Amino acid sequence: MATEFGxxxxxYVNGERETLSDVDLDETLLEYLRGRxxxxxxxxxxxxxxxxxxxxxxxxxxxxxxxxHYTVNACLCPLYVMDGKHVVTxxxxxxxxxxxxxxxxxALLHGSQCGFCTPGFVMSLYTLLRNTPEPSExxxxxxxxxxxxxxxxxxxxxxxxxxxxxxAWKQGAVVGADGLAxxxxxxxxxxxxxxxxxxxxxxxxxxxxxTLASGxxxxxxxxxxxxxxxxxxxxCKGSTESKGSTGSKGCCKGTGAKSCAGSGPALExxxxxxxxxxxxxTQEPIFxxxxxxxxxxxxxxxxxxxxxxxxxxxxxxxxxxxxFRPLTLEQLLAIVGEHPQAKLVxxxxxxxxxxxxxxxxxxxxxxVGDIPELxxxxxxxxxxxxxxxxTLAQFARELAQLSSELGTEKAQNLEACLExxxxxxxxxxxxxxxxxxxxxxxxxxxxxxxxxxxxGAELTLAAAGGQRRTVKMADFFLGYRxxxxxxxxxxxxxFVPHSRAGEVVRAYKQAKRKDDDIAIVTCAMRVVVDPASxxxxxxxxxxxxxxxxxxxxxxxxxxxxxxxxAWDEPAARAAAVAACGAELRLGYAVPGGMAEYRAALACSFxxxxxxxxxxxxxxARGADAAHAGEHSEARELSRGQQAYDAVAERVVVGKGxxxxxxxxxATGEARYVDDMPAVGGELHMxxxxxxxxxxxxxxxxxxxxxxxxxVERVLTAADVPGENVWNIFRDEELLPTREVHYHGxxxxxxxxxxxxxxxxxxxxxxxxxxxxPAVLTVRDAAARQAWFGEERVLRNGDVDAALAASDVVLxxxxxxxxxxxFYLEPMxxxxxxxxEAGELDLYASTQNPTEAQMVCAEALGVAAxxxxxxxKRMGGGxxxxxxxxxxxxxxxxxxxxxxxxxxxxxxxRDSDMRTSGQRHPFYAQWTVGATRDGRLRAxxxxxxxxxxxxxxxxxxxxxRAVSHVDNCYRFAATDIVxxxxxxxxxxxxxxxGFGGCQGMLMTESMLCELADRLELTVEHIRRINMYESxxxxxxxxxxxxxxxxxxxxxxxxxxxxxxARRRACDEYNARTRFRKRGLAMLPTKFGxxxxxxxxxxxxxxxxVYMDGSVLVAHGGTEMGQGxxxxxxxxxxxxxxxPLSAIFISETATxxxxxxxxxxxxxxSDLNGFAVHNACAALARRLQPYRDEHPDLPFxxxxxxxxxxxxxxxEAGHYATPDIGFDWQKNQGLLYFYFTQGVALAEVxxxxxxGAHTTRRVxxxxxxxxxxxxxxxxxxxxxxFAQGQGWTTTEEYLYSPRDGRLLTQGPGNYKIPSAxxxxxxxxxxxxxxxxxxxxKTIFSSKGIGEPPLFLGSSVFFALRxxxxxxxxxxxxxxxxxxxxxxxxxxxxxxxxxxxxxLTRIPHEQRQGTPFAVRI
Length: 1414
Description:
Radius of gyration: 32 Å
Distance between the termini: 58 Å
Number of helices: 40
């Protein structure tokens, strides 16, 4: 080839030039950045699905003469594509001392909890602002569609982000508690929506107001304030004097609920706003001038010049051996002609995932993203020709502009393409993925290919020598992942024809989650209707997800054309739907599963298209066509409201202080385990997973792995020098000796010089097995009585007699599925030997440093005193790092022990999900007796949990489930028996709620079916059976004076307008056919204490230094829940110091020994009292010095005390009093108190797809006298979102063939996104009345777990909507629906004619299903 190739790449990182001549072609941008010390960019999933690795990339657009900024997933982006680009990471924006406004606002407005996802959110918002300095609120919400957060519930992130919108409060503007933007010309205000400085009062100024959902921009006068500084914010102190004041002005609104003191959120928001750094888009760093010259080809002598690249990877075992980057189409065709098997790469979203997770090797790769000719858009007389390598983001922009200019008649194919892109992946993927890549990968579930197929698009294929040919889309797909592309050909152009008069084109998609998800079924439909006859004379119906390729449904098109009916006649609809049901019927065991649902979706989309096309053509004969407008999917903006009283009685405790690490998390300075710099000579570890769910190990051959240069050791059970068994019941091996018990179980450990080498070597370890029978599901295990020996029983009264006396007796069963923790930071640990006496430092992401220390010591055969476990922070935990994290830290320690070098083990997302366990699935068999008016008389329940292959914490989970079956209801007699089933899955473990949620869900599902039977509302049954304060629970615990649920129920029932909204839902459902709304109101009580008595203790160690600073160490770990912040507040309050004087560095077993795990929502109680006790002792000891020197600052007092030889260190301890329960006798105090709550959820369900929107949620929560109300609000919102996900989108599926987990990673497992949260989310804290009966620290309550169950109110509201749909179709039988209520289960539960059409008869359900819930 005549082309001159360069051999080095030049790019910038945060303004600094990088030149690399020896590029590792397998290295991603993320690996490079982190290796360079820029660890703010995180590895969360490795597949571009979570957004933790988001960075901004900029390149210079020569045609437009300006830089272009866009987000990318650094985990997928190959380093070699960075030539000529500028990479900006979170570190390039600001520091904790001088943060960028984006970083600061997210931090101050509580948008960062664990912080692991925060840099990704920061970079997504920052990039939006670089492109659109004053974005709309919708643009802000949608800029996060590729970012996931597991902690916050997203609301505070969105609130912070919207401060940059043109509608919302900016400099001198505030958002009131009602979600309205209040903008003052003066830039003043106390934060209250009716502050005198925001209209009326002393200044009598007018305000500009906009509802956050309105999308209207501010008036010119208001928007002119963008140049103001943010300094004059706070209460105006304008009219009245505070009570008890000595003459200072008070709040302008006086006292009470309308005053600053009566509105905690508004006042705290105003205080945060007072600290805001003004955002000025003109002050952003400029694009590097050198890169402008580089792109234009005008570099000067001595500077690198831009040219085509040809790089060679000299590293052994490389997946990519040669790389080319052409700059012209001619160069590309020449390269492909010489290397016909080369893999073309643009966005790398497909190739990167295959390389990482399937370990595919593509020896020659060609990057095609820098070829301008392949991005050109040409308008033609009969359509538009697009350069095939146009990115999906640019494609969407072009489509929007063309559609606007061409008009609907011509642009329907283009509009359908745009609709297909609306929910296509996330921004980071759309910014780099291309049209050509989407077509050429030939995915059968492509979003775009059905539109191109239905529209009659044509493809231009080019080859070297100027050869070109045109292929119709209908002829392009030859089989599964096979196309008409021949060797040496590339896809050059895509031609999309104009639509014409009488033509209607629509695109549809359904996925497990609306945004950033792969399709279950995707389709595009087109008809051309003769205006004279009303009949169809041309039609195309293209489907993805229904065959190995995207297909045209010929029979459906024939039915549309040849039915003999005008298109708007219902008979035409019936013919098309029937043809679809016949042509696209799927077998029971079809790959991908969901056979009935996929067929129902295809038919439902045909029905929907018929209605929409008739409406579009002005043909409205028939009832369904009249309801076409119901299919609109216009998304409302989200809004949040928080309500609680400001705290006046304390100085620090109770205040809504932002998370103390939030700014460091937002700037990327906060360090997590894998952010630690490498220790000299550090090694990496990888796991060798089992390939069977249950098998006998017959041999392990590591010779091939050990033959690789750089592999140090392969460790098996024989290499464990001490104890190879662990956990409470001592029934689990660290590494298996004879048998494996679940698919993915670690069989051996590989230690090597790099992580990539360790993983490669692990795949070379050969393990021979003899397969054994396996049991996966809890139902199968219960039927076989495959359970552990422990049984938990609560019996009260004569159940048989109570059932006999009941008016109605109903028997049934309930089930709830597993849930993945999906903490954004995967399991990880670094073990560092100290080099003498067996000492070892463990740096672990664990909630349980003491167990990590003890198990490690036992495995190594050393005393626990020689192992120190350090926990700085975790990127989320949720119970998943309470026990299962111990395996990871112990594995790293074993590697360090044998190599005498530091060893790092970081699980990838798939390995983490395969091995770490999850929320226990539960299955219940129940019989309930009740009176005709719904009063509960008797309950008999047999409760079974899926414990997995070992005990782990399953008995404790079962105990909490059994003791929460009653939820908030009085049963005259109970007989509750629980067992833990043994199965061949990973050992299930603690998860936020710890069994309590499952126990309550079993009962609430039962009550719904009872309500169906009695023809009563379930809310009526809940309220009339609700405990009163004099009642006693089935576990013999009196409720007493702290019982608030009835009061809360009635309060929320009134404040949330339940009765009026119930009527409104019923009226809506009566007039709609394809959409229904549902309501559900749900209470919860959650017991706070560890079930094991000795764990109910906490400890602390507090040092006062002679400069007056205070170091606090305590037994709890920080995982985002704000524990360290609350402990610092307690210390500051007790020592009467400012919060800034308190510092908490880490949790470590040499400063906090014999600690309880940070779990059970009890850590603030236990460690808080311990901190208080230590600080109180210090305060008493220092008080004489303070009294003697009342005018001296504390620093000088501390120095005087030190010089007087006063002890300035104190240990604190606390043990929960009176706790302890005997399960055999049903005696004792099981829980110290109950955290209580009530929620009301309203949803809207699309009956044709099963998709839903959560319209509004109201939560009222009793948290006692909160230690930090803002943090507690964040815990409520985050827990609710997690509970919503558990009961709706988060489905855990296994293969019944081999026991393999199918739903690995964010691509297959769907936690809620920012666009899934309630559109209107209102949270209120119950304000205590009078003296508190609580004996807790400052009368507070634990809050981490209790709100999670309230998220299931969305599940029950969806059930209510399904019931409305069933009544519409004449189905009156009680509804049995199981958790999670996925779109599949909701759609099939509607029981309409389409569901009946696509139902697979029982006799045809042959073969093994593709997937099962366990």
